[in-house]
Amino acid sequence: MIPDISPLDDTALHSALQARIDGKTKPLGSLGRLEALAVQIGCILGASSPRLAQPQLVVFAADHGLAAQGISAYPSDVTWQMVENFLAGGAAVSVLARQHGLALTVVDAGVRHDFAPRPGLTLRKIGPGTADALTGPAMSEAQCAAAISAGREVVQALPGNALLLGEMGIGNTSAAALLLARLTGQPIELCAGRGTGLDEAGLARKVRVLRDVLARHALATAPLAALAAFGGFEIAMMSGAVLQAALERRVIVVDGFIASSAVLVASRLQPEVLSRCIFAHCSDEAGHALMLRALDAQPLLTLGLRLGEGSGAALAWPLLESACRLLAEMASFESAGVSRQSDPEPGTAPTR
Amino acid sequence: MIPDISPLDDTALHSALQARIDGKTKPLGSLGRLEALAVQIGCILGASSPRLAQPQLVVFAADHGLAAQGISAYPSDVTWQMVENFLAGGAAVSVLARQHGLALTVVDAGVRHDFAPRPGLTLRKIGPGTADALTGPAMSEAQCAAAISAGREVVQALPGNALLLGEMGIGNTSAAALLLARLTGQPIELCAGRGTGLDEAGLARKVRVLRDVLARHALATAPLAALAAFGGFEIAMMSGAVLQAALERRVIVVDGFIASSAVLVASRLQPEVLSRCIFAHCSDEAGHALMLRALDAQPLLTLGLRLGEGSGAALAWPLLESACRLLAEMASFESAGVSRQSDPEPGTAPTR
Q1: Could you give the CA distance from residue A271 to residue A264 in angstroms, rounded to a whole number?
Q2: Are A167 and A59 in contact (CB under 8 A)?
Q3: I need a surface site. Which of A234, B119, B160, B277 has the fewest CB within 10 A?
Q4: A35, A167, A234, A309: which is the annotated catalytic residue?
Q5: Which of A282, A334, A351, A352 to mutate to test the interface with B (most CBs of B within 10 A)?
Q6: What residue in B sits closest to A168 (Cα-Cα)?
Q7: Which residue does chain B place closest to A322, by CA atoms?
Q8: Whole-prediction pTM value?
Q9: A345 falls in which pLDDT band (50, 70, 90)?
Q10: Would you call B95 and A329 a contact, using CB atoms and an 8 Å cutoff?
């Protein structure tokens, strides 16, 4: 169920990519983060002139039994309503995917609603929402394994070489906070945030509930045990998607807090998945900065987003495109006849 | 020569834009910086459904007499060589402008080189580079006025409703640092940075030279006097472009340290230009963060860029497009049939 993910250890390719960037008509290092991004994409795709092809934005949706405890500002019905909105093209991620030419697929990983089949919707429902983690494990071991396998199969069936992670699930900031707290040992009050918009009292209630859930599952310390205990189906399926995409050496663009929690689980199973991950942004959800530090991840954007859906991944996408285009299309000092830093200029003082 | 720039004081439009965003299918405020961006663009363009049209990226290029003092890591000839590179399509900004459908115009504001006329190049040379600011004013008052007027005329002749500022000029981080120091009173050692790549000794030399230049022009305290004293032609012309674009209510996308220095000068002449400015990024050049604070500006990106050319403005452009598209294309709660935060959900506990 869990594939081996090997390191990207082609040092010759890494050096070649860096040398290619250093030869471009610009001061050394002056493209900042885009330079490391170009090198990383090249190393993932195993190409000195990498091309991103048919990028796939996949939104994994599911419901959470824990939502019955009042840990979200929105009712669970919003999950299926938003799935309809994604498919109708009216959600933020629908708009952004259109803007950037990203193929959008919504996966029903376990929404508490029966969807009519249609294009753009992949039905892989593990169950009608997870069980309430306050009273038992969110899912069984078998359901957890099935979700991870389904995530792998979803990616396997998709074309292209880049996967952008998105999700929808009322209550899923709670599951992500529980995973963060359990897998990193951080206190739950630092991991839990306002989600879609809890007020002060709502947040206090959420923290109390999550503390009880952690106590209820004190023995669920291994990554898969924690995933089964806390859920959700969309996070488990995303973990599978991350493992499969890493195995196939696709570029993985990680969205916000929930998507990062799936990467956290996957990286505890196979640490080398992180070499394939590009972290799109640091969200405004309280635990995300903490999660990114735990993953030693440097996000590209910090725009105060806290929407999920893959919206942050979609917003960061043009930066990945830019990194590849700059590598492919910029002239070198030689080809453009531009003087290098060390070239003397007649009639002026030396610069060093 | 300096037009009056009036405030954008349509509070009804501002409220209408905010209400429209708040009605979209997403938690309140969850699109972070993009929400304020959409409101700002709407207010600049005077439209509740703003559309960005025919964006113009203009690279103002000129040489600096002060470069003879060895304040740059590159020789002055790189200015004209890079202009050729822009026009040939091989520079970073050429690649990024192509990626994002930005019309690219290079303006010879005062390069020490004679260019053959050709498409994409606008010849508005004030002189073959400024004079050495260490020995006298970089330009005369008349030259400064001519540069500002030329910048206004350049913008007037361009179609569209958005202007992205770019520049090229070996030595121009020195001019920008001098303007920052003089117009904000910050010490020169905090304003000056490594530019295109000075080493420690080079930076120390640059700071010494700039301190002498400031002393040489101790009386040049008014914005236009400082601009004439320190240069450069491209900065003066950009200041004129900013004033004209603000007058015409174009969206102005400000690139890095040098472009910001032109905005600083323009804003000291007409403070309301800032209401039309979107700051693309915070560059790695030492003084830029200080400059942005002086302008009370929140940049969109922080990617460690220090290239200039308008590259940061081009990289931020898709975020402006996203802001407008989200406003235009996202469904409302009503149109999509999605439950709002306050809607009760049968059978679950209330969330507040």
Answers
A1: 9
A2: yes
A3: B119
A4: A309
A5: A351
A6: B26
A7: B96
A8: 0.96
A9: very low
A10: yes
| Residue B174 tokens, joined | 């020195």
Helical residues (DSSP H) of chain B, grouped into ranges: 11-22, 33-45, 77-88, 92-100, 141-156, 172-184, 188-191, 200-216, 223-230, 233-247, 257-269, 286-294, 311-329, 333-336
Spatial neighbors of B348 by CB under 8 A, at least 6 apart, are A67, A68, A70, A75, A76
CA B203, distance to chain mean position in Å, is 24
The Cα–Cα gap between A252 and A241 comes to 9
On the 0-12 / 13-18 / 19+ scale of CB atoms within 10 A, B184 is: middle
Give the CA count within 13 Å in the CB-facing half-sphere of B114: 0
Q: ipTM score of the complex?
A: 0.96
For tokens 């993910």, what's the residue? A5
Contact criterion met (CB < 8 Å) for B322 and A315:
yes
Per-residue pLDDT of B96-144, as tens digits, reads: 999 999 999 999 999 999 999 999 999 999 999 999 999 999 999 999 9
List the one residue out of A258, A44, A61, A275 whose CA is nearest residue A151. A61
Active-site residue, B309 included: yes
Tokens 């040379």, located at residue: B125
Q: Count Cβ neighbours within 10 Å for each residue of A205-215 and write b for 16 or more, e otherwise.
A: bbbebbbebbe
How high is the pLDDT of residue B272? 98
Catalytic residue among B35, B234, B285, B309: B309
Cβ–Cβ gap A90/B330 under 8 Å? yes
Distance CA B342, CA B290 (A): 43
* Residue A350 pLDDT greater than 80, yes or no: no
- β-pairing, B277-279 with B251-254? parallel
Rounded to 10°, the helix B172-184/B286-294 angle is 40
For residue range B313-334, list pLDDT tens digits in order. 999 999 999 999 999 999 999 9
Q: What is the pLDDT of residue A342?
A: 57
Sign of the C-alpha dihedral computed for residues A339, A344, A346 and A352 taken in this order: positive
State the pLDDT confidence band at A341, using cuts at 50, 70 and 90: confident
Q: Please list, in sequence order, all residues whose beta carbon lies within 8 angstroms of the beta carbon of residue A256, skipping any fewer than 6 positions away.
A: A280, A281, A283, A285, A288, A305, A306, A307, A308, A312
| Interface contact flag, A326 B91, Cβ < 8 Å | no
Which candidate from A28, A29, A85 shows the least CB-CB separation from B331? A85
